[in-house]
Amino acid sequence: MHVEPVPADTRAVVLVEGASDRVAVRTLAARIGRDLDAEGVRVVAMGGATNIGHFLDRLGPAGRRLRLAGLYDHAEEGFFRRGLERAGLGVDLTRPAMAALGFHACVVDLEDELIRALGADQVRWVVTQAGDLASLLLFQRQPAQQGRPVEAQLRRFLGTRSGRKEAYARLLVTALDPDRVPRSLRAVLDDV
């Protein structure tokens, strides 16, 4: 596993599952006027939820003792819960207890939260502005997509090409009305 270095001047770390989550957190921070680098806050993509234990060991109470927060997909909650418990940050942690520690769930995942926050029409507008409408329409005509809700189609479309999730994380967060930012995304920044 490649582990990106965390500079010595780091005071806090936001742990996220992947690159698109990292882009979304950093984009929102910039939109609300925060310079995370200047604040000593790093957003670290772990390469998946199963790596949480390693990062907690390295950066948490038994390691560098940095202030930690995190963002995770609902389906990966068990990995985060077990990692936090093994790191000595609680026992039998509930979702609210994990949130109190700074670790916030995205339901179903961050893309789903962004699509719900924007609405399907606004996401389609963003796709159009990005020049991907023809690709989206072609994707929606595929037999596997027939009969699926448009939100599910959009969520799947975002993951169909390398780099697309990262590009759309930036575009969708940029398109968000400030009062429509998903709670989990806003909360993770509030905790660092």
TrEMBL record:
One term of GO molecular function: endonuclease activity
Domain OLD protein-like TOPRIM: 11-57
Keywords on record: Endonuclease, Hydrolase, Nuclease
InterPro entries, per the entry: TOPRIM_OLD
Name of the molecule in the record: ATP-dependent endonuclease
Organism: Micromonospora endolithica
